[in-house]
TrEMBL record:
<dbReference type="GO" id="GO:0003677">
    <property type="term" value="F:DNA binding"/>
</dbReference>
<comment type="similarity">
    <text>Belongs to the helicase family. Dicer subfamily.</text>
</comment>
<dbReference type="InterPro" id="IPR038248">
    <property type="entry name" value="Dicer_dimer_sf"/>
</dbReference>
<dbReference type="InterPro" id="IPR036389">
    <property type="entry name" value="RNase_III_sf"/>
</dbReference>
<keyword id="KW-0943">RNA-mediated gene silencing</keyword>
<dbReference type="GO" id="GO:0005524">
    <property type="term" value="F:ATP binding"/>
</dbReference>
<keyword id="KW-0378">Hydrolase</keyword>
<feature type="domain" description="Dicer dsRNA-binding fold">
    <location>
        <begin position="540"/>
        <end position="638"/>
    </location>
</feature>
<feature type="domain" description="Helicase ATP-binding">
    <location>
        <begin position="20"/>
        <end position="203"/>
    </location>
</feature>
<keyword id="KW-0694">RNA-binding</keyword>
<dbReference type="GO" id="GO:0003723">
    <property type="term" value="F:RNA binding"/>
</dbReference>
<dbReference type="InterPro" id="IPR027417">
    <property type="entry name" value="P-loop_NTPase"/>
</dbReference>
<dbReference type="InterPro" id="IPR006935">
    <property type="entry name" value="Helicase/UvrB_N"/>
</dbReference>
<dbReference type="Pfam" id="PF00271">
    <property type="entry name" value="Helicase_C"/>
</dbReference>
<dbReference type="InterPro" id="IPR014001">
    <property type="entry name" value="Helicase_ATP-bd"/>
</dbReference>
<keyword id="KW-0464">Manganese</keyword>
<keyword id="KW-0547">Nucleotide-binding</keyword>
């Protein structure tokens, strides 16, 4: 490497590093070097070398595609560590990737961008393997692959799949260079010879090393010592063991493994440690059972564990057991520190070794153990042992999911990094670690490493020893004196290491290398020709399970593929071959639901072949896209693209920032025109009835040059938080204005608005309307008619007054120029150019009369002007003082602001403003908000009658102008009258229309696919795209009026205010317009609005959907369940024309035979859910007095939630008719039925009374019902909807008879929809988020976290609350606040059930 290269590295490489680099440049190599010897620096030098070659290659051949380097690691924590190192030591674009970044959901376009932008990609091996399998990247695009900890390249590991499936299938000229790094190429208990040959064959590389003498000066080898202890022959179990056995009851079964392990720990660690491990198991199991209980409230989906009566018994038994053992004298908190008698000789030996380092100035050590539970209890011992106060210990274990025992502990990546950083800084000086600390992690060099448990493999030995690389460090292995095999095993490992290194140094080439264990044939690979994506035998099963995990489920049992393997006898030689079959859940299309394998010699191979075959069928059925990814984005669904407007590029689930739109309102049709002399000009008189309508304000006139006058009428608008009537009277006689007259009215218009606004009103503009004054004698409008002479009612004197320049109030002789000052407006040149209305003239006072100002700071007004206001001119001494008040602020949005204090003016400093005072005192102050409201009202009328193309049509929107104007008003613009209620109504209709459209248009799609498509159609970005395409934003009033920003409206959409709207607000407006049309035109009106707003893919006549569905729906007869159908019909009061619809509504997905013949209820439940939501919302919307938006939403959620629907289903007898074949579901339904029987005494009527329940909504106090019991009610509604030809009144009739009429009185008793509501949260209710944090503060815990996730595809925000890194509450909503609140409510249920935090047990806080 050149000197410049060394300079870029920032460090000086060592000679042996150059030696390995040279070999790596020549060929593929595996660098076998000790931990800390600088293998990663060699890889960075190789990356830089390949980058220079790549730059040279592209310079010589500009058309060639750029190739990059890939740095692979086996563990997630290593990704960020190695990415940081590579970035620090080379000047290349380095990017990193790991699973938590949700890379599996990234689109092809996103990956193309990533590949094109990066020069080095650092990632886990699994991600790179998936990139290759999905053809997001090809081997030909890579110049170098680095395998960190490459000894993992064995069997079915991702390293081996990358090499065998992709690297070795690539032509040799296109293969990248391979560089592997490891401290030991051995694996498991294989001999070093076979291990080296195997890894060389797998990685197509030669293993190399260097002389130990070259490395030793830089990486000191530790002193190796064996410390013996006397093993324990027999140990008695701890007292806690007997307590659990005696009082555990049903809980003992859950602790069986922990009890067994405690006996083993007694011998290995002693009774004190065994007791602590058992305590941890009690706490962990109790938390797990309670957490399972909590999860039943997550989105109304119960878990199997919580549905079993046996599980409920376990929860109660565990609570009693925990309470009992925690109060016993044997509990951790009630005990003193352990003594030598409480610990095993092995633990005592460890403690003595540590005590020897008491006087070590910079002590730093690691204790390696095999089990996570061992690490945890040893940490507790060390923290409590007298004499080890200098030790600051912590544990470092893996972050894998699950654990072998409840006593085990898992650490997440962030926790691992935090512990390692604490160790690096010296805040922690001893780590008790499992094998996770042996490899990869950048842990500082130690002066003591102890193998508490003997090394099993050569790799364990070499890597753990490598952590002790300080000068004079020590590597100690504890061996049982009674078991000589441990010391012999250690000696064998040491000897094998010497032989391995000698062999590596003497080997010059690959001889006798083995073929990769993972190298499929062409037959064993399925490749998609269009993309190059592939799946092999070795990856097929994992891909299949991933697909099934994404299928829709009601959370009763997991959806997984079902494999069956049977021997196929050979008549001649006996059963030597196997054949496998795989069956997927019923929600999978029938053509891809079943497949078989060919005959195979092994069971595992037959299973792989079956999985590969069904993946081919899933791809052919459209369940997997051409990248072999499960369909999770609607853009991948055939024939669906035209329904969704494009909303930008990027990954399907990428997090997007909310887009803010800026625009101005359009000019209404009635105001459009050009101001020219002698052109017909129309006058409209406007009168506002303020002061509760008792006295009108002064009238004002509006001139327009449109096609005709504005229509006569009365409307209401909100001013100062009260509704104000506005009366309009127009003349059908046009004005003929010459050029001078037109100029004069424009000057009045400009002067008026410059006086009342603080915005930049232009002197010349093409105004949309011009304001003119009206004579004050015009009081009786009834006598005017519509043919009055407009010229006779305009106050031409005031117009002429406005044409004059501002006149001085004081002449040169010191006399006032105006006798009636109350009739004029004064402009003060020294008071920030403000306008004033005169109250009184003090003729007997002068500027220098005794008149204290500002509490006596200034003795006279003249002195105040000179000193405080810095008035530069001499002040006339004979002029009077004027008492005035500032011109009131204009009405902004809904609030009036009035100045409170008087001002004293000197006439010399004032001019007369060219607008009379009576105009400024009248309508002028309300004029801006009046014009904005009138402009918006006219736009609402334009939208109704003209549509978006400004051409009047008979096919107009059916909403009233008032409702449409409200639908176009954002809450921030008018908190009183806005779109919120209409948006709720329209949203429910849009959901049923879209559900109906999808149900009829995609008859073979399952409920999960339909939900995916509906989410795409109704998400904010899709609705916004439709609105933007139509130019809807120009009709929306999105910002409150401000006198500093608003200007009079102009032609071509000028003037007004700049409105700022988020994409969500625009989407809400779309739904509100649908709601307005629904109010005015019923179902047909709402459907017509959907077609106009969202495109012609929808139908306004729903009977067309019925015809379309009839064409695709097969005629079926299914008479076996006819008696059941008749019972259902009697219960709901509806008789089916097509009985098979009712049967389908009762079939659960687990009943495979019925599903195959008739289908499951999932599709009907999808449709019925939307129908129920709409008819309930429509009913609540019509309640008088109207419910607020919040009350409407909360009340609806009470009526349609799963708990109440399950209650209704049970009372109707629907639950007993559900057809299923699932033990967990059967148990869940039975448990729910037992609750109902117990509460109601078997009386299926809402009129029963019971003292066991606290409130009228008694179903809320029961255990959560299984989702299927609520789904069946929605499915029945869906069946009724389909059977009626999509007449929404049919399901409404069922809802009215079965849900509203029988149960409404209970909601009235609960006060739903009122201030006393027991089902709607009040404003002063305790904040669950704050309560959750308050709980953690009381417990001195810092391990409660809320994590926000944005699902752009579904249009929701999800929040997860974790406690000690375990999810205890989940929630989702339209914004972060709602999602976080719901998650906190669920979390509180769990937190309130525990009386202490695990931090207290660990002594962390």
């Amino acid at each position: 490497m050149s000197a410049s290269g060394d300079h870029q590295l920032g460090v000086t490489p060592r000679s042996y590093q150059y030696e390995v680099l040279d070999k790596a440049i020549d060929s593929n190599v595996i660098a076998v070097l000790d931990t800390g010897s600088g293998k990663t620096l060699i890889s960075v030098m190789l990356i830089s070398h390949m980058a220079r070659l790549e730059q040279k290659r592209r310079t010589e051949n500009p058309g060639l595609r750029t190739r990059l380097s890939v740095f692979l690691v086996p563990l997630v924590p290593l990704v960020l560590q190695q990415e940081e190192y590579v970035r620090k030591h080379c000047n290349l674009k380095v990017k990193h990737y790991y699973g938590a970044m949700r890379v599996d959901d990234w689109s092809e376009e996103r990956w193309k961008n990533e590949v094109s932008e990066a020069e080095v990609m650092v990632m886990t091996a699994d991600i790179f393997r998936n990139m290759l399998c999905r053809a997001y990247i090809a081997m030909e695009q890579i110049n170098l692959i680095i395998f960190d900890e490459c000894h993992h390249a064995r069997k079915n590991h991702a390293y081996n799949q990358i090499m065998g499936i992709h690297y070795k299938q690539c032509r040799e000229s296109g293969r990248p260079k391979i560089f592997g790094m490891t401290a030991s190429p051995t694996f498991g208990k294989e001999s070093y010879q076979s291990s080296i040959m195997q890894i060389e064959g797998n990685l197509d590389a030669r293993a190399v090393t260097v002389d130990v003498a070259e490395v030793s000066p830089h990486v000191p080898r530790p002193k190796q010592t064996v410390v013996y202890y006397k093993g324990t022959e027999r140990a008695d179990p701890p007292a806690l063991y007997y307590l659990v056995k005696q009082y555990g009851g049903p809980a003992e079964e859950e602790l069986a493994a922990a009890l067994k392990k405690s006996l083993i720990l007694c011998e290995e660690l002693g009774t004190w440690c065994a007791a602590r491990a058992l305590e941890m198991a009690v706490l962990a199991t109790d938390a797990r059972l309670k957490r399972s209980r909590v999860l039943q409230w997550h989105n109304g989906r119960p878990t199997e564990e919580c549905s079993e009566p046996k599980e409920l018994e376990k929860v109660a038994a565990f609570a009693n057991l925990k309470s009992y053992v925690m109060t016993s004298p044997f509990w951790f908190d009630n005990l003193s520190s352990p003594t030598a008698n409480d610990l095993s000789p092995k633990v005592m030996t460890l403690l003595k070794v540590l005590e020897e380092y008491r006087n070590c100035k910079h002590f730093c050590g690691i204790v390696f153990v095999q089990r996570r539970a061992t690490a945890r209890v040893l940490d507790l011992v060390i923290k409590r042992w007298k004499g080890l106060e200098f030790v600051k210990s912590d544990i470092l274990v893996g972050h894998g999911i699950g654990s072998a025992s409840p006593a085990d502990v898992n650490l997440r990546v962030q926790q691992q990094r935090k512990i390692v950083q604490s160790f690096q800084k010296g805040e922690t000086n001893l780590i008790i670690a499992t094998r996770v600390a042996e490899e990869g992690l950048d842990i500082r060099a130690c002066n003591l490493v102890i193998r508490f448990d003997v090394c099993i493999t050569l790799t364990n030995y070499i890597q753990s020893r490598g952590r002790a690389r300080r000068m004079d460090s020590e590597f100690i292995t504890l061996c049982n004196r009674n078991s000589p095999s441990e010391a012999v095993q250690l000696a064998e490992l040491q000897r094998e290491e010497q032989l391995m290194r000698a062999a590596l140094q003497t080997r010059e080439s690959l001889t006798g290398s083995m073929e990769s264990a993972v190298q499929p044939s062409d037959e064993e690979i399925y490749t998609v020709e269009s993309t190059g994506a592939s799946v092999t035998l070795y990856t097929s099963i994992g891909m299949l399970y991933n697909y099934c995990a994404l299928l829709p489920t009601d959370s009763v049992g997991a959806l997984t593929p079902t494999f069956q393997i049977a021997p196929v006898p050979d008549l001649a030689y006996g059963p030597c071959e196997f054949k496998a079959s795989v069956t997927l859940p019923p929600s999978v299309p029938i053509e891809a639901r079943y497949a078989t394998s060919k005959l195979c010699a092994r069971k595992a191979l037959a299973k792989q072949w079956a999985a590969l075959e069904i993946i081919k069928r899933l791809h052919a059925a459209g369940e997997l896209d051409d990248r072999l990814k499960p369909i999770k984005a609607v853009s991948q669904i055939a024939g669906f693209d035209e329904m969704v407007e494009p909303v930008g590029t990027g990954g399907d689930t990428e997090r997007k920032k909310r887009q803010i739109l800026e625009f101005r309102m359009k000019t209404p049709v009635f105001w459009r025109g050009s101001w020219k002399p002698h052109q017909p000009t129309w006058l409209t008189l406007v009168r506002m009835h303020v002061d509760n309508g008792n006295k009108p304000t002064s009238d004002i006139g509006l001139l327009t040059v449109g096609e005709g006058p504005m229509q006569k009428g009365i409307f209401h608008m909100s001013i100062a938080n009260r509704l104000t009537a506005v009366e309009i009277q127009s003349s059908r006689c046009p004005l003929d204005l010459d050029l001078p007259t037109l100029a004069s009215v424009k000057r009045f218009h400009v002067a008026l608005f410059k006086g009342i606004l603080r915005s930049d009103v232009q002197d010349e503009a093409e105004w949309a309307t011009i304001v003119v004054p009206v004579v004050e004698t015009l009081t009786d409008w009834t006598a005017l008619g519509d043919a009055f002479d407009p010229r006779a009612v305009i106050d031409w004197e005031s117009v002429a007054f406005a044409s004059r320049a501002q006149q001085p109030l004081l002449d040169q002789d010191g006399n006032l120029t105006c006798a009636n000052l109350q009739a004029v407006v004064l402009h003060s040149r020294v008071h920030h150019n403000r306008l004033y209305l005169v109250d009184k003239v003090h003729d007997h006072l002068t500027p220098y009369s005794d008149w204290p100002i500002e509490e006596g700071k200034f003795p006279t007004l003249g002195r105040y002007y000179e000193a405080r206001l810095k008035y530069p001119e001499p002040i006339h001494t004979a002029q009077p003082i004027i008492k005035a008040h500032r011109l009131p602020y204009i009405t902004q949005t809904t609030m009036e602001k009035q100045p409170t204090s008087a001002a004293y003016l000197i006439p010399q400093c004032c001019t007369i403003y060219p607008i009379p005072a009576h105009i400024m005192r009248g309508t002028a102050l309300h004029l801006p908000i009046l014009l904005q409201h009138l402009q918006h009202r006219l736009l609402a009328s334009d939208l109704k009658y003209y549509g978006f193309d400004d051409f009047m049509s008979d096919d107009y929107l059916h909403g009233s102008v008032e409702d449409l104007q409200a639908a176009l008003t954002a809450p921030v613009a008018d908190p009183t009258v806005n779109y919120e209620r209409l948006e709720t109504f329209g949203d429910s209709f849009l959901k049923i229309h879209q559900s109906l459209h999808l149900y009829a248009s995609y008859p073979t799609c399952h409920e999960g696919r339909l939900s995916l498509m509906r989410n795409a159609l109704e998400r904010n970005t899709a609705l916004r795209a439709c609105a933007m395409k139509l130019g809807l934003e120009g009709y929306v009033l999105g910002t409150g009026l401000s006198r500093r920003e608003w200007t009079p409206p102009e032609q071509l959409g000028g003037g007004g205010s700049v409105h700022k709207l988020s994409d969500k607000t625009v989407a809400d407006v779309v739904e509100a317009i649908i709601g307005a049309c629904l109010c005015g035109g019923g179902i047909r009106g709402g459907a017509g609005a959907v077609v106009k707003l969202l495109g012609h893919g929808y139908e306004s006549d729903w009977s067309i959907y019925s015809q379309k569905l009839a064409e695709s729906r097969q005629s079926r007869t299914f008479t076996v369940m006819e008696p059941i159908v008749r019972q259902v019909e009697q219960a709901i009061g509806y008789q089916f024309k097509d009985m098979t619809l009712a049967i389908e509504a009762l079939v659960h997905a687990s009943e495979a035979r019925a599903v195959a013949e008739i289908g499951s209820y999932q599709r009907l439940e999808f449709l019925g859910d939307a129908a129920l939501g709409f008819v309930v919302t429509r009913h609540l919307y019509a309640i008088s007095p109207p419910l607020s938006p919040a009350e409407l939403s909360e009340f609806r959620s009470e009526l349609v939630n799963n708990q109440f629907l399950s209650w209704v289903s049970w009372t109707l007898g629907l639950t007993k008719h559900i057809q299923y074949n699932d033990a967990a579901l059967e148990s869940a339904i039975a448990h729910f039925g037992h609750q109902m029987e117990r509460v109601t005494g078997g009386v299926r009527t809402p009129r029963f009374k019971t003292s066991a329940l606290k409130g009228p909504l008694y179903w809320k106090e029961l255990d959560a019902a299984p989702k299927s019991t609520g789904d069946v009610y929605e499915a029945i509604l869906g069946a009724v909807f389909v059977d009626s030809g999509f007449d929404v009144e049919a399901p409404w009739g069922v809802v009215l008879r079965t849900l509203i009429d029988p149960w409404w009185h209970l909601f009235q008793e609960a006060g739903c929809g009122t201030a006393q509501s027991k089902c709607v949260r009040s404003a002063d209710e305790t904040n669950p988020i704050g309560e959750a944090y308050e709980w953690t503060q009381k417990m001195r815990c810092e391990r409660l976290q809320f994590t926000i996730e944005i699902d752009e595809e579904a249009g929701v925000i999800r929040c997860t609350c974790t406690f000690h890194d375990v999810p205890i509450g989940c929630g989702e909503g339209k914004n972060k606040k709602i999602a976080k609140r719901i998650a906190a409510e669920h979390a509180l249920t769990f937190l309130r059930s525990i009386d202490r935090c695990a931090c207290h047990q660990e002594g962390k806080n």
